[in-house]
Give the backbone structure.
Amino acid sequence: MGKSLHLTWHGGNTTQYIVVWFFIALWTFVDPGFYQRCAAAKSPAVARKGIFISILFWIVFDFLTLTAGLYSVLLPVGVITDAKLALPLLGMEVLPPLLQGLFFAGLLATIMSTVDSLGFISAITFGRDIMAKRSGDSVKQTQMGLIVVAIGSLILAWSIPSVVNLWLTLGSVVVPGLLLPFLATFLPKVRIQKVGWMMIASAGASVIWLLLGTTDVPLLGVQPFYAGMLVSIFWTGWGLLKNGD
């Protein structure tokens, strides 16, 4: 038998697939929720401190998640019947009853806190920014946004059951159109022409590339993220050459 995939650096994935995840990790910097949380802080100093503390805990949580996943590989054959259930099955196998209860309560708390925070932020973003009815009832706008976000989330969860593929798909569509405009905010001389259309074009390119291939076998062996990113780069470069920047 060959070397187990979990003992290799790539885990059986291609290099370009792994690189895509590094770009998708930049989602944090183009996520409205990041800036809304920072704006809600008492002062820039408090926000900065919160960011550093969050980074520290991200490292700890990721380490614990990956370590638990590796431990689950060592369980006897037949215990892990579904890879998506590896973490709860590991807890059931190695923890005593009392700690099992705390363990599952922690899992549920993580899920519910994410639903509460991201659901509410997304509802406000949709109701106040996308609907753009500033003079309307903000409560009704948020309620409408919450309904739309909930329905959209259920459709996505039903269409793409794998959370890994869900993040990969959404990141490949959303990040390419937002990354360069975000970076341009730090460079006053860089002006992207018709940035709204650029976002639509790059996201559209990723969606088309995604539809022409499959989740496991992308078109021409190239991840959809790169198709959208290429459109974004060409659009930005064309605008810079046109303006002589």
In short: The longest helix spans residues 97-130. The CA atoms of residues 181 and 192 lie 7 Å apart. The chain has ten helices and no strands. The chain has a mean pLDDT of 82.
